[in-house]
Design goal:
The complex is a heterodimer.
Chain A lengths: L8 H6 L12 H28 L4 H10 L17 H14 L1 H21 L2 H7 L9 E5 L15 E5 L2 E12 L4 E9 L9 E7 L5 E3 L13 E12 L3 E2 L5 H37 L1 E2 L2 E2 L4 H29 L5 H26 L10 H9 L8 H15 L3
Helix pairs in contact in A: 2-4, 4-5, 4-7, 5-7, 7-8, 7-9, 7-10, 8-9, 9-10, 9-11
Chain B lengths: L3 E5 L2 E3 L21 E3 L1 H15 L5 E8 L3 H11 L3 E6 L2 H5 L3 H14 L4 E5 L10 H9 L3 E11 L2 E8 L2 E8 L2 E5 L11 H7 L4 E4 L32 H10 L4
Parallel strand pairs in B: 1-4, 1-6, 4-5, 5-11, 6-10, 7-10
Antiparallel strand pairs in B: 2-3, 7-8, 8-9
Helix pairs in contact in B: 2-6, 4-5
Classes of the chains: A alpha+beta, B alpha/beta.
């Protein structure tokens, strides 16, 4: 399989094993995966249904995950993180999401969308101030790009930021912000120069709570209900000018690059949901009898499970490839989009078929299949809709063939 | 206290895996099957690490006997907080025949070599359920033993062990050096955190051969055959207590 990963052979050789990461993960990654799996099985899976029913933020579990180092996988140890790579992060999010998809997205947003841009674009001062408290699970961050008027059209940000003396004054509304009700800080994207369109967007660090920042009502969602989603409303919200993240006008670039990495996180979340749904269906197939035998004996069921497994494993390989490329500091935009697209569509397909395998039992809350179905749906929408992913992939592919 | 604790950790088939007997009935299928640290060994490691965190002992050494893969189990113990590891290399036929007596001889030799004050083991392994290694090790060393421990309290040069026995709980006080085997309720093992997994990479694992310890691995046991347990038969319903008693008598169960 080594020939499939020419770009990452360097990373593999530098790694501890001669085998491709695909055939066998390095020891650290295997151990991390096992820890996350054990945690998910013992602390998340048993309460996931209740967290979903009651829309409860899993605060205790998030703090435990902080102790495990999962809330800041890529953050260097000097700043309180685990100092590991994106492959490790992807494995962690997948295993966590397999237990509870809401917890998975809380982990992913904190790692990729909040800590990610800080690590990449923050000044030394900003990193020291805004990173360490968000590595322990005590505090989580969020990422505010979408608005009621624009989701996919991120360049049309109507939230504004104007410099007034030593302060930036933010005005506008952000929509669909994951973690909003539980976050202690946010990265807000606002237009600083409307004339240059998306080159006039900048990113700002805003603590929460903060004067001038208020939250809309918690959205009543179909799935991932244990994570909070709401509008963030800014009314003459003032932050010191030191809170500008990256350079003026760099906001769009920061957002796009951040989302590239975030897609690996969401792909991993989708993989976890898909795996949980597949586990549920396969286990049920062994136990449920019909026509005098377990339904596992029926080809109709076997073919479904085969299609589910293929969809899942191919999406997983795409996700790992994207992570490995990123870890090897190679371009990974196309692969990350492919991973997110494949994994999210796999998750919805698998959870749909899992309900089918379970029949009536799949439709009731006694079994987790219906929750996986509801949780999976959002993965095709947030951090870039499947349509946007196709745009990204299509343009990248065409670039490769440009005359 | 400059005490050193030796903890034995065994690599076994993961508890969640469905065991299958090999077609030739010589054993169970282990190839490609998920393995992990014996759950009682995890409890043993946790107890040792807790003692170290309380500063009651100085060093925790994790030991495992087996082929190369045994190092993964040691690495997990290191990630839980053990300081260093010893991999006693046993493979092939020797590994197939490795049982409590052989492991006890190895542990006894290591305990003497490493100037150990306490050996903590799991009470039994979930693959063979022997529940012998701790007891045999204590006997070979002529050390006191506190088995099925649900509580361990260090008291100077002695250790108080509360043991789970059929009738309830028994408290014994052992003069160290001693052997303790961990039972289920002794503690709840910690997760290997990511920072500790990273730290574990730098911790040392020494590899040693049984011969170097002067241990003879010859087994006097021969496994003749391994079979699946009989398929569970359907039960039967009875109408009255009298009928239950007569049926039990018929079946020779009373």
């Amino acid at each position: 399989l080594k020939h499939l990963f020419p770009a990452v052979c360097g990373a593999v050789r530098r790694g501890s094993r001669r085998l491709s990461h695909v055939a066998q993960l390095p020891e650290v990654h295997r151990m991390l995966r096992q820890t996350c799996r054990d945690f998910a099985e013992r602390e998340l899976a048993p309460v996931a249904s209740q967290l979903d029913k009651e829309h409860t933020y899993p605060g205790r579990q998030v703090r435990e995950l902080g102790k495990l180092g999962i809330m800041a996988v890529e953050v260097p140890e000097s700043l309180g993180g685990a100092g590991l790579d994106y492959l490790a992060y992807g494995l962690a999010v997948e295993e966590i999401s397999r237990g509870c998809a809401s917890t998975g997205v809380i982990v992913s947003v904190n790692n990729s969308l909040y800590l990610g841009p800080l690590l990449k674009f923050g000044s030394e001062e900003q990193k020291k101030q805004w990173i360490p408290p968000f590595t322990t699970g005590e505090k989580v961050g969020c990422f505010a790009l979408s608005e009621p008027g624009n989701g996919s059209d991120a360049g049309a940000a109507s939230t504004t930021a104007q410099l007034d003396g030593d302060e930036w004054v933010l005005n506008g509304t952000k929509a669909w912000i994951t973690n909003s009700w539980d976050a202690s800080a946010t990265i807000i994207f606002a237009t600083t120069d409307k004339a240059v369109k998306h080159q006039g967007i900048s990113a700002f660090l805003v603590p929460m709570p903060h004067p001038g920042l208020s939250l809309g009502k918690k959205e009543d969602k179909l799935g991932i209900r244990a994570s909070s989603t709401a509008n963030i409303i800014l009314e003459d919200c003032r932050v010191p000018k030191e809170n500008l993240l990256g350079g003026l006008g760099m906001g769009f670039k920061i957002a796009m690059q951040t989302l590239d990495s975030g897609r690996i996180g969401i792909a991993s979340q989708a993989l976890g949901i898909g795996q949980a749904a597949l586990d549920c269906a396969a286990d049920y197939a062994h136990k449920r009898t019909a026509f005098g035998a377990p339904i596992a004996k029926l080809q109709a069921i076997q073919f479904k499970l085969a299609d589910m497994a293929v969809a899942l494993e191919s999406a997983r390989l795409l996700t790992w490839k994207a992570a490995l490329l990123r870890d090897a500091k190679q371009p990974f935009t196309k692969e990350a989009a492919m991973a997110k697209l494949a994994a999210s569509e796999a998750a919805t397909f698998i959870s749909h078929q899992a309900i089918q395998v379970l029949g009536g039992m799949g439709y009731v809350t006694d079994m987790p299949a219906e929750r996986h179905y509801r949780d999976a749906r959002i993965t095709e929408i947030y951090e870039g809709t499947s349509e946007i992913q196709r745009l990204v992939i299509g343009t990248q592919v065409l670039k490769e063939y440009q005359g | 206290m400059s005490a050193r604790v030796l903890v034995g950790v065994k690599r076994v088939i993961d508890y969640a895996v469905k065991i299958r007997v090999k077609p030739d009935n010589t054993g169970v299928v282990t190839d490609g099957v998920k393995h992990s640290m014996n759950p009682f060994c995890e409890i043993a490691v946790e107890e040792a690490v807790k003692l170290k965190e309380k500063k009651l002992i100085k060093e925790v050494v994790a030991v495992s006997c087996g082929p190369q893969q045994a190092q993964e189990t040691i690495r997990t113990a290191l990630a839980m907080g053990a300081d260093r590891g010893i991999h006693v290399e046993v493979s092939g036929k020797d590994y197939d025949n490795l049982g409590p007596l052989q492991v006890s001889k190895i542990l006894a030799a290591l305990a003497k070599k490493e100037e150990t004050s306490l050996i903590i083991l799991g009470k039994q392994a979930i693959d063979d359920d022997c529940n012998q290694t701790g007891q045999m090790t204590a006997a070979l060393l002529d050390w006191p033993q506190g088995t099925f421990a649900s509580e361990v309290v260090l008291e100077g040069d002695k250790v108080k062990v509360i043991r789970e026995i059929d009738g309830g709980l028994e408290t014994v006080r052992l003069k160290m050096p001693a052997v303790i085997t961990a039972d289920l309720r002794l503690n709840t093992p910690r997760y290997a955190t990511l920072p500790n997994i990273m730290k574990a990479k730098k911790k040392k694992i020494d590899v040693v051969k049984p011969g170097e310890l002067g241990v003879d691995l010859t087994s006097h046991l021969e496994v003749l055959r391994v079979d699946e347990p009989p398929q569970r038969q359907a039960g039967m319903k009875v109408e009255t207590v009298e009928e239950l008693i007569s049926r039990l008598k018929e079946a020779g169960r009373m």
